Amino acid sequence: MPARKAPDLMYAENRFCAGCGHGIFDRILGEVLTEMGIVQDTIICSDIGCNHQFQFCMRVDAIVPPHGKMGAALTAQKHVRPDKYALTICGDGGAYAIGLGETMAAATRNENVTFFVMNNTVYGMTGGQLAPTTMMGQKTASSKAGRTYEEYGENFDVFKVMQGLDIAYLARTSVTNPGNIAKTKKFVRKALEKQRDGKGFSLVEVLVPCPTNWGMTPVKSMEYIDQVVSTQYQLGELIDK
Amino acid sequence: MEKRIMKGNEALAEGAVRGGCRFYAGYPITPQSEILEWMSWRQKEVGGVFIQGESEIASVNMTFAARSLGARALTSTSGPGFSLYQEGIAYWVSAGVPAVVACVQRFGIGDGFISAGQDNYWQAVKGGGNGDYHLITLAPNSVQENVDMAYESFALAEKWMHPVLILSDGTIGQMMEPCVLPPMVDYDMDQPWAVKGCKDGEKNKVITDITYFQDIDEWNAGYLKKMREISETEQRWESFCVEDADIVLVAYGISSRVAESAVHQAREEGFKLGLIRPITLWPYPRKAFKEIPDTCRGVITVEVNMMGQMRDDVIITVKGKFPTFALTTNQRIAKVDQVVQYAKDVYDGKIREEEVY
Question: CA–CA separation, A150 vs A139, rounded Å?
Fold first, then answer.
């Protein structure tokens, strides 16, 4: 069996930190877009944050609105060019904090667009501060003694928030081993197929490691996702219409 | 050419549609909601897209996306909403996205009031968001100009690949006047700069801060050159009786209508009043002030605000050659008699020139 080659649209090395999960996801998305034959029909709406580095390694058209405003921008993209795939690669801070309003508004309208949310439980690009997804007790650059319920309430779980909405697809996955990577690829494809078939809003959350801000080695970060993060955030498909 | 009697806001919307606008996003806010309401049915008729955004922040960014994909895109708002727009508009500028925004001014700080005002001036012409920029700013003073400026705004924005702002006000927006509607423009949204999916063998396009993909020093130099060219070549104004004026009024929008009447009334009384009406607020029509005779005793702005915001630009323009004054009428529109009397008082030396705030 020949070695797997990176798809043609990956034109450069990625710029992520060693052990970062974003690069793995970008490769997965690149493979899915290539296998579905839709690279030419895709316009990615970038968030601002580590995720937007995809634009320096993937040959795909993209727009970059202000941080978190993907729900609004994707909505307009899809209405203006319904024949193109409207998707975002974004972070948990963008989708669930500064952009929560726009994310939820797009979901409540069941816009035919797709979110790929990289959840690494922190703000990565700015140095690992507390995010809505930071887990109870988790220490971050802005919660040095660990997150407490008294200060920030419960951590944000998109499954709880979106479970009652009339949307097409909601799933969570991780990239910690070949099995999970294969599953992520399957979920990514499924989300884009929902959009292709006009079913409506789809969101796949991907649990990704941030070794730099977690202060762990890449290998340890993967173990941490399997042993801790995945127990807090349920994996699998919650909505599949 | 089609003649209609229309409300200013609706005229602005229809002017945009006929100018090729095929995308509108906005959020209801008085006194401009008629633009949104008009677009809600009119875009369907012409095969365009209307979206009532969940907020002003959403609407301005929807407009960014739609324009990035090529559609001639408009959004509109008033004071508080315009404040929320500033981040989004700065992104338009940094990405060279030629979108159009209309701000129908209302009076007040923060929430303020729903009546007309001219107190968004500073925010409108001095940038508004972060970074070095001005928007090309058009100031209509009639329903007809609401039509015409909206109609031509897209071509103007595309000429410079820079956003255009139509700075109207609640009075122009709410009043009805006859107007002539121009023919429908056909616009192809498949522009070379627009994102539409990257074909095999092509270089992909990313609509973002342009400096990410270009040498920043080179981009800065090109951008400054463009801004200088705009400021030299796009100045527009109208002058009335300036060449022999003893006192010159400067007013835009609804205030210019009052000021023009004041010039006529004063001239009938033998008082030599003149008027410069800026049509572009940026670039500020500096060239117009060269016509003012050396014997002029003062230049007065007439403004529906408290602090005489536009007077700053007059001071910058006349560079101390003439004393400057602002007849500010807060939330009310000046009356003709009031303007004439104020000008006479300036002429007679009864009013002292004040420092700016």
Answer: 15
